[in-house]
Request: fold
Amino acid sequence: MKKSDLDHIESLAKKMRISAVETGYGAGKNAAHFGGALSAIEILACLYGGIMDVDPKNPDKKPRDIIIMSKAHAVLALYTALAYTGFFPLEDLKTFENDESDLSGHPVMNIQRGIEFSGGSLGMGFSQGVGVALGYRKQKIDNRVFVILGDGELDEGSNWEAAMSAAHFNLGNLIVIVDKNTVQGDGKTDEIMNLGDLAKKFSAFGFETREVDGHNISALYESLSALCTSREEKPKALIAHTVKGKGVSFMENNHIWHHNVMTPQQYEQAMQELGRAVN
Amino acid sequence: MAFNKRDIRTFSMLGIRRSFYFQLTKEAEKNNNIVIICADMFKGNNLEKFQQSHPEQIYNVGIAEQNMIGIAAGMAKVGLNVFAVAFSTFISTRCFDQVRVNLGYMNLPIKLVGRGSGLGNNVAGPTHYAVEDIALLRTIPNMTVVVPADALEAVKIAEAAVNSKNPMYIRLVDAANVPIVYKDDYDFQIGKAEVLQEGTDIAIFAAGTMVNASLKAAKILAEENISVAVVNVHTIKPLDVQTIDKYSAGRKLIVSVEEHGIIGGLGSAIAEHNSEKVSSPPQLKIGIPDAYGKAGSYEYLLDKYGLTAEKICAAIKKKFLEL
Reply:
């Protein structure tokens, strides 16, 4: 990986984070899922910034890598990644959560905008990823499927059905990334429902597992690249240690920012912290 | 594909479920895109033969219906023609949200195939009955819901399902040696109800196993000079409202008969439609009552719930004479 490529992803992540906060603020009283989007920014910046085989000019190209945003409430990370990598105009982000918008509070399948699956009901994306991986293998397609999971989402038992089956079918083309921000809607994951050691759990289920600082672009890129090029016929899991609400001090590690409305003063402070002065 | 009388007799001996998979296996021979996903039910569905002949087209995901539907969605997303198989009750209730999101909301053309529908799991008891499945699945936008009346119709549905671009629920019963409703091949169309007998006093709208019982009941009533039409409503959704309208009009009574709970099934679908008219005949809803009872043999349960030809006939006659 060249330094210029990493710089490009760093720059992408910075723009996405600012835009995610702006877009969420723009939703006004409709509120937005800030915390879990800001924790996933670097993960999606790496995927869209170089890891994935996708083409914004030809979003339906076949074959291609497929991403499933299972923690679908983190749309501000997904939409900003898609907009800044050219799947749709940046201007469209202003329609976020508007009446009849394509960009609602949870993603709606729309391949022309690069959105592969609809989401919102947690615990479904992992199984869909197993299905894509099995389908690609049957069709002798070498592309990969990436599933973005939340750690809170892993409370849903269907994930563990999917994990068992991914290992059973030796799905080396499936990469799940856990955005382990340690906070869910009601509070700390350790207190609401303790997930234990996720890396050990995924390893025990039969995954090739890695852990990484989910905000360190260089480390993330290296981990994702290593998992993508691994020859092991095992599904891959990347546990990305992240901070919920990353980059905005009053949102960080605070569950009330899982889904909330920003005041103008809070917006101004957030923008200052992100290096963008508000006029 | 055309079928002769010998084929039809063979299907009848195989039963509804085996005939369905017989046809699906034939379809899979010429179409490598067809895949079956099953939740620990190869043996229960006689899918071993399919597994032997098409090992690259069948997947067992273990006892995990929620995961099965998600996997089906992923496979359908990349263009495979997916049939997901489990007991009717588990494929409709256990994974309802997965069905709603993946088949309904995303409109992925997955075919759900339920076995042991209605009271088919008899002595296993109510955990294994599927008497709410039609009610649940027909509430989901985009879904097609079909129920074959006999083994030939199951074969026809298998052919139609392979070629359908819509998500679908196919409700099968298990028994072998099922009565023949269609003695000759016929033109089957999803969404087009079949008038099996004309009649002017009463119209029976029946689905699945109850079509044959309703034909018998109509025959007994004819001997008492009550003229009864019988319509096979094999597609509960989309409902063939033209045929419902035509056979509701001018009748003194309409009757719905189904091996399903009386809430939410065919009877409800017809009542919902007819309720929008200025007038329509009174409707007798024959089905399984809104209660869980004790288990028993299939024949015992059909008799207990009034789903035999004799009891259907008696219920209709009683209602008809009250009018």
Remarks:
- DSSP finds ten helices and seven strands in chain A.
- Chain A has a mean pLDDT of 97.
